[in-house]
Amino acid sequence: MDYVSKKMSLLDAKPIQLHLLKTITEDFSKKLKIGSGGYGEVYKGVLNGHEIAIKKLFPVHGVDDEAFDNEFRNLKKVQHKNVIRMIGYCYEIAHKDVEYQGKLVWSQVIDRALCFEYMKGGSLAKHISAESCIHNWPITYKIIKGTCEGLHHLHKGGEKKIFHLDLKPDNVLLDEELVPKIGDFGLSELFGSSYTHQQSSTKGTIGFMPQEYIHNRKVSPKNDVFSLGVIIFHIMAGEKGYSDYWDARRRPNFSPKIQHKFIESVQEYWKKKMETMEGYRWDETDLLGVTRCIDMAMRCVEDDRDKRPYIKDIINELNKLDSEVSEMLKKDPKPPIGQLKRKNRVNDLEAVKQNKSFKYLGKDIVVDPSQELCFPFESNKNTLVENRALVQAGS
């Protein structure tokens, strides 16, 4: 197996034979299956002593060819700490005898698979409860910034820029240290310097696509920025928080005052959440971080794409935030902290590792109603999907 180094540190993905993938996945057995999607299924295997994830694409002609090509070409040479690393691939053509109209004929069978570093933390979606990211604020901020840095690397590119076009919590993976890495590039595309492109069809995930793409199939860097904003909203306020905000913005009485009250609600939620962490001092540095991140998310999900920031602007804002926080801590350092533990709460991270549903987290404890995330406006009876369907139908 000289195509993969002992520590799998090669900069370029190498071909891996199908028979080897079958061996390390026990012929793609159900017990080693760790996920599935619209284009294929994902299995866990061990190669040279290291766990890897193998995405085997479904044998559907045309659709998965495009998905395979997109992911393979766009990820083959991408190297960044916040983008999933492809370590190998398989593309083999064989012939199998099948019966057709009473006769045995030869049928062409194409097997395609992509191999990635295995992410023990699973998808970001598993780390988000109904209210927010389940982790403390320092870790949550690390996840937000890391995701932004990964997207920035894709957008700045070289001659060609990569637009992901399907960013969502399910497609952001976390390693054992909770470092985020953007993955699943099945819908991604390479673009040159032109700002706007138009696609012949709409592909993506409802709720994470901007209006200009839903209605006119227009593609620009701002598509991914919109999706990033939705992700940050989910991280900071949960899906319901984003749903309530999205619904409120479409009401005639929406105003900057309501927007400000929403920010205050998010600030108060994180303050109370962190006050339940033993040994952590919530202070102005945390408040500043929460405020900047939720404000940034609001600007990212603007309907008018020209009002959304570029990812490079977001990175500049976060770097500036880090500098400000660093200066503030020099004047008033936080006391040293060990592993943060939530008072009287179950271990959320352990629940993630055990694949427990979030609806069962904390069922054995009494939850303080004051720690629930509340917003300064009533939610509409329509669900988020219904609301979006109404907007789309009205266009």
TrEMBL record:
<keyword id="KW-0067">ATP-binding</keyword>
<dbReference type="Pfam" id="PF00069">
    <property type="entry name" value="Pkinase"/>
</dbReference>
<keyword id="KW-0723">Serine/threonine-protein kinase</keyword>
<keyword id="KW-0808">Transferase</keyword>
<feature type="domain" description="Protein kinase">
    <location>
        <begin position="28"/>
        <end position="329"/>
    </location>
</feature>
<dbReference type="InterPro" id="IPR017441">
    <property type="entry name" value="Protein_kinase_ATP_BS"/>
</dbReference>
<keyword id="KW-0547">Nucleotide-binding</keyword>
<protein>
    <recommendedName>
        <fullName>Protein kinase domain-containing protein</fullName>
    </recommendedName>
</protein>
<keyword id="KW-0418">Kinase</keyword>
<comment type="similarity">
    <text>Belongs to the protein kinase superfamily.</text>
</comment>
<dbReference type="InterPro" id="IPR000719">
    <property type="entry name" value="Prot_kinase_dom"/>
</dbReference>
<dbReference type="GO" id="GO:0004674">
    <property type="term" value="F:protein serine/threonine kinase activity"/>
</dbReference>
<dbReference type="InterPro" id="IPR011009">
    <property type="entry name" value="Kinase-like_dom_sf"/>
</dbReference>
<dbReference type="GO" id="GO:0005524">
    <property type="term" value="F:ATP binding"/>
</dbReference>
<feature type="binding site">
    <location>
        <position position="56"/>
    </location>
    <ligand>
        <name>ATP</name>
    </ligand>
</feature>
<dbReference type="InterPro" id="IPR008271">
    <property type="entry name" value="Ser/Thr_kinase_AS"/>
</dbReference>
